[in-house]
Amino acid sequence: MNLIKKITYITLFGLTIFSCNSEKKVNISEDSAKDAFNKLTNLVDGFAENSIQKGNANSFAIAIYKDGEMYQNYYGEIDKEDNNKPNDSSLYEIASITKTFTGSLVAKAVLIGKIGLDDDIRKYLKGNYPNLEFEGHPITVKHLLTHSMGLKNKHTKGFEAISNKVTSGTYDYKTDSYSIDDLLEELKTVEVDKKPGTVFAYNSVGPELLAHILENVNKKPFKMQMDAFFKELGMNDTYLQYSQNYKYRLVKGYKGEVLAPIDHDPVYGAAGGAISTLPDLAKYMQYLIDNKNGPWIKEASRVLFTDPDDDEQIGYLWQSIGFAEEEGCYYSKTGTSNRIQSGILICPDSNYGIIVMVNNTSDQAMRDWELLFFRDIEPMVIKYPKLDLSSVFRKDFNENPKKAYQNFRTLKSDTVTYHFAVRDLNNFGYDLLNDKEYQKSIAVFKFLTEEFPENANIYDSLGEAYFITEDYKNALISFKKALELNPDMKTSKNYIKKIKELSTQQ
Fold first, then answer.
1. Tens digits of per-residue pLDDT, 105-119?
2. What's the first-to-final CA gap in the chain, in angstroms?
3. Which secondary-structure segment (H or E) carries 467?
4. d(Cα 208, Cα 229) in Å, to the nearest integer?
5. Which of 43, 151, 172, 256 is the most exposed place for a label (fewest CB within 10 A)?
């Protein structure tokens, strides 16, 4: 039985509301730590290269920060078969990750009393906006930060139209424009049809209005504020609304085989207008972890809203804030431009962060990005300095199955250095099955039945692989063995029934 559920960035992690105030420490010698970190990053390299070999993604950029150690690397080619591997000067469109910088500037302003979370946003807008409330409940700053303004869908039509031009590649920098004045004028016509603070509706309007509020309270252009913030973070190669100026350094990206247009964020760029290098994003990640108890960082990463539909917790434009049993508190953000899919995950309790970027936004490439991030890399980092033997097995198997079997049998008793879960090994068999590597999948499941002969689920999985390849004889043997070990194995019962039905039809 397949134990993998569909991975989604928003719902992957833990469940409970948290306070990021615990500290996890593992005592390990300096030499042992370096050796373990090198082994970890070697595994990461193997998984990234294997993802590239699938042919869906052009290139990956990865950074991992753990217990003071930083690792950064690039894989693949920006343009397939052009031998142009990304490097430290490559600029990536980080899209909605930009929102976290906007949110942090708001957090700073809140802490010094310039902005109140519960302030009616009309306090900061010139003009008359009687429509920006629902049954006496106004839109507040908190609602802008948490995508819970309550606006009627698609009611900022001009803003949406210009955004659609960017997405479709029809935006003309010479003739098309949309400014904050346009947005403020359009804001007079929107309808608030839900109580603000009750319904999550992801949007880019909120961050742009927050940028306008920041200009009003700090008396400086928003871009100047962001540039100063980047410098404070040590991000000297990160820029807001400069994609055209640096277009020759921008990493080209694709939608499958089609070159995608350069991204552009209308108005201030507060929602997605930043471009950055991997080293600069790694500095950001390290800064947030090393200064996790800093006032504005603690404020920016705290929960302000919980989506009632899926329990997603949101802070100052950070999403997926929560607490997990092993890694402790975490917060994260993804960014999707026309060209680039990116993600940053911060786990301050466990002193680690991960960044993964891919320059192809096809469904297949996005899936490979997702699996590389959350299936391959993050579980290994959580268990570090112990190494995930399941990951070692998977890397070895991709190179040499015989070597994988021998190494696993040799290392599985070394519980000081390694850990593993049988379900992860079983899921690897399903990965191969889903990739239509049928014989490899069967080989993995057969090996696992030899290693774990009392595990009914593995026999059930082997039976499913045989069934898919129409080897009903061996499928039946495996399903019967699964039921012998676990008479309640429903999937085995169902498959046996299917096999009997097929036999009567022949």
1. 999 999 999 999 999
2. 27
3. helix 456-468
4. 17
5. 172
Q: Answer whether residue 412 shows pLDDT above 60.
A: yes
% of the chain exceeding 90 in pLDDT: 78
What tokens does 317 get?
A: 């434009």
Residue pLDDT, tens place only, 70-103: 999 999 999 988 899 999 999 999 999 999 999 9
Cα atoms found within 13 Å of the Cα of residue 262, Cβ hemisphere only? 20
Of 355, 306, 307, the closest CA to residue 332 belongs to 355
> Residue type for 142, please?
K
pLDDT at 435 over 70: yes
Contact 344, 332 (CB under 8 A): yes
The pLDDT score that the predictor gives to residue 95 is 96
Single-letter amino acid code for the residue at 203: N
Q: Provide the pLDDT for residue 34.
A: 80
Please tell me the distance from the alpha carbon of residue 438 to that of residue 213, in angstroms, as a whole number. Answer: 57
* Per-residue model confidence (pLDDT) at position 383: 87
Rounded Cα gap, residues 56 and 366, in angstroms:
9
Element (H, E) at 50: helix 30-53
Our CA dihedral for 433, 406, 378, 356, rounded to 10 degrees, sits at -70
Residue corresponding to tokens 């950074």: 63
Q: What is the pLDDT of residue 53?
A: 92
Alpha-carbon separation of residue 254 from 8, 122, 249, 411 (angstroms): 22, 41, 16, 41
Q: What is the sign, positive or negative, of the torsion defined by CA atoms of 283, 289, 290, 296?
A: positive
| DSSP symbol at 263 | P
Amino acid at 459: Y
pLDDT at 19: 43
Residue (of 104, 83, 2, 12) closest to 379 by Cα position: 12
Token reading at 380: 């290994």
Closest CA to 306 of 444, 159, 197: 197
pLDDT class of 9 with cuts at 50, 70, 90? very low
CA atoms within 13 A on the CB side of 378: 25
* 487 preceded by a cis bond (ω within 30 of 0): no
Q: Strand locations in 295-425, DSSP E?
A: 305-306, 313-314, 319-324, 328-336, 341-347, 352-358, 387-388, 418-419
The C-alpha atoms of residue 212 and residue 180 are separated, in whole angstroms, by: 8
- Amino acid at residue number 243: S
Residue-by-residue DSSP string for 337-371: -SS-EEEEEEETTTTEEEEEEESB-SHHHHHHHHI
Long-range CB contacts (< 8 A, 24+ apart) of 487-493? 489/1, 489/456, 489/457, 489/460, 491/1, 491/460, 491/464, 492/456, 492/459, 492/460, 492/463
The answer to whether 372 and 356 are in contact (CB under 8 A) is: yes
